[in-house]
Write the structure tokens for this entry.
Amino acid sequence: MSEQSPVVNVPDDASAHRCPYCDRAFHEERHRTLHKGLDHPDRIDDAEREAFQDAYRGETDDIKVFRMKVLGSLVALYFLLLFAYMVLG
């Protein structure tokens, strides 16, 4: 990627997950796995590619659930305000 990576400060007593290709630090192994698949796809092996695909699918599922919750909240808020307008308006 052409974007500048943010600097991650990891305390000395904490464990950091570092990318073996660019030495970037991550707080979670899942983030490093996603980074390797997105930024170094030509350098990872089959096991790393499989781990990336699993992590990517997990992220996608989490985003879908989040979107459904937000949509449900907005619909509930809309009908709550509509009902309040009918009763109070």
Q: What stands out?
A: The chain is about 60% helix and 5% strand. The first helix runs from residue 29 to 39.
